[in-house]
Amino acid sequence: SLKAYVETYLREEVMQESLVRKIDHFIRLLDVAGQVNGEPVNFTAVARDTGVSVKTVQEYFDILADTLIAFRIDGWSYSVRKQLRQSPKYYFFDCGVLNAVRGELQTELKSGSYRYGKLFETFIVNELIRANDYNESGYRFHYWRTNTGMEADLVLTRGPNDSPIAVEIKSQASPKASDLKGLMAFASENHKAKLFCLCQTPRKYALGPIQVLPWQKGIEVLLQE
Asked: Across the chain, what does the average pLDDT equal?
């Protein structure tokens, strides 16, 4: 079962690799990682909550990425220095495992809820990363967020001279322009950016410069840009 996988397999895999000395600390951090899935991680706050050093927290999150338990997404900027100053996000590799880590396997999942939206986002991020690897599309994945809370879920580029592709992921079937203010904010700072929204719409449509696409078709289109 997924619960057994989280409680046994992940623990044993990490121990067999001799990646951590104190597995209880790692399991505690795994719980925290589940709670902050898809959100920028404040390593200092996590260290305070878990009772370990900031360096240890960073090392443990690195283990999650190195063992492919989670994918790391860094903040985006044309400046590499600014990228390094931004807190990374981590997305678990599987929504079922994420539910198990969060203790929500038996919790009813309601369409349209905040939890549903975050799980849909996690699913799409994973699908994009895997399709990018499989197709050898060569994209690097980042996210973008301002101090005022404007955000694009993903920014895809192949290099610093590329026009960035900004992506918003929405679980509803017909997002409106008011749901996609983050993309417009990104475009106001990055005039050559291409803007996409992947969602559960049955057919593509446009909201000004934003292409709103069914998520399956959207993944295909994005990786062909």
From this structure: 88
